[in-house]
Write a structure and sequence with these properties.
By secondary structure, this protein is of the alpha/beta class. Bound molecules: pyridoxal-5'-phosphate (PLP).
């Protein structure tokens, strides 16, 4: 372990826990990451010294808390290089952000007969809200297929997009295969036909620099808890040109300009989309997590995690009856696999007993499983505190699981 790796790990108390008297090897970062002390301390500090409801108070604590929340918005805007802070809306996570989008975008811009395009590798969060919109409005969901390698077949996009297409909603990185999708190419194709693009960044923002102006995507959604921040935090980013026009998602306090029984007018963005008391402590914690990532540097994060993914592939491929699922040219964050004909759940159970935490099952991507003709996979997913030593213990556990399961 390098001094830098040791220093990073020392910021995560949970990594020193023992499971079944064994050192914890945490490879379930795609589901949620652990939180560095500074995020926990920041949130505790706010609760201990500053807690007060935001935006509505005239008193000292409320102003302090509001300043911290708005500073958090600035940090998150910088994190994704949004053109302005008002385009950054705090939510509870990716799922809530996509539901917000499906409702507000759908109600504003869509009508019967229109089409939304998603892909075959989406998480259920980026399928079901669109199906609900389609049902509500009499619209159709079109699906961009994947190749046998587990990449998007983007040539097919040209035949899918037509004058009825209202939006393309696509994962930046697959939570199962780790495939990094060519967002810039997709955006270029979509924009040439005046179709906006929403990027599900749940599995990319934790692992790489995601620059919304460089990608030129129109919307980006992601979860705080997958990028070293607290649960219940997330971001919905959208270009002002759309957000200004979109109807609100939830009604209530804070999102209004003036309320009367003869009619209500709405607040400006971002507040129009932040009804009620936001989880301001989580938002402040999320910004602390973003600063943690920024200080580590995206070069370091990307190089370290690339090394772990490549090392894992080299150790597993062709050994112990392991079949790696998908062979994308660019892979980030996750490696999915099966061992011979063993059920993924059985493999996961054996790894667990050896202190190795991985996720098994369909990973909320049942249509992808159907396409691949499998019930599920075992997924090892990496975070910035993982090391080659973790991979060595994991590979040893896979070898034993393989021997036990025949
Ligand atoms: N999209 C992708 C690609 C994901 O991997 C996940 C979670 O695993 C989600 C959406 C949903 O995220 P959340 O449960 O944090 O809302």
């Amino acid at each position: 372990m390098t001094p830098k790796e040791l220093e990073i790990r020392s910021q995560f108390a949970i990594l020193y826990e023992k499971v079944y008297s064994k050192p914890l090897v945490y490879l379930d970062n795609g589901a949620t990451t652990q939180k560095p002390n500074r995020v926990l301390e920041k949130m505790q500090y706010v609760y201990e010294h500053l807690n007060s409801n935001v935006h509505r108070g005239v008193h000292y604590l409320s102003n302090q808390c509001t300043d911290l929340l708005e500073e958090a918005r600035r940090v998150m805007a910088r994190h994704i290089n949004a053109a302005e802070e008002a385009e950054v809306i705090f939510t509870r996570g990716t799922t809530e952000s996509i539901n917000l989008m499906a409702f507000s975008f759908g109600e504003t811009f869509c009508k019967a007969g229109d089409k939304i395009i998603v892909t075959e590798m989406e998480h259920h969060s980026n399928i079901v809200p669109w199906q609900m919109l389609c049902q509500r409005k009499g619209m159709t969901l079109r699906v961009l297929p994947i190749t046998d390698e587990g990449e998007l077949d983007i040539e097919k996009l040209d035949t899918l997009i037509n004058e009825k297409t209202k939006l393309i909603s696509v994962a930046h990185v697959s939570n199962v295969l780790g495939t990094v999708n060519p967002i810039k190419d997709i955006v270029a194709k979509a924009h040439s036909k005046n179709v906006p693009v929403m990027v599900d960044g749940a599995q990319s923002v934790p692992h790489m620099k995601v620059d919304v102006q460089d990608l030129d995507c129109d919307f980006l959604v992601f979860s705080g808890h997958k990028m070293y921040g607290p649960t219940g935090s997330g971001i919905f980013y959208g270009k002002r040109q759309y957000l200004d026009q979109m109807v609100p998602y939830h009604g209530g306090g804070e999102m209004i300009d003036k309320v009367s029984f003869s009619g209500t007018t709405y607040n400006v963005i971002p507040f129009k989309f932040e009804a009620g008391t936001p989880d301001y402590v989580a938002a402040i914690g999320l910004a602390e997590a973003a600063k943690f990532m920024q200080e580590l540097g995206f070069d370091y994060i990307e190089n370290q995690e690339h090394d772990l993914v490549q090392y894992t592939l080299s150790q597993l491929q062709g050994h112990y009856g392991v079949n790696i699922i998908g062979a994308p040219k660019q892979r980030s964050g996750s490696v999915s696999f099966l061992i011979n004909k063993a059920h993924p759940y059985d493999v996961g159970m054996i790894l667990d007993k050896m202190g190795v935490a991985v996720r098994t099952g369909h990973h909320c991507a049942q249509p992808l499983m159907e396409r691949l003709g499998i019930v599920g996979t075992v997924r090892a997913s990496f975070g910035i505190y993982n090391t080659r030593e973790d991979v060595d213990i994991f590979v040893k556990a896979v070898r034993q699981a393989s021997a036990m399961l025949g």
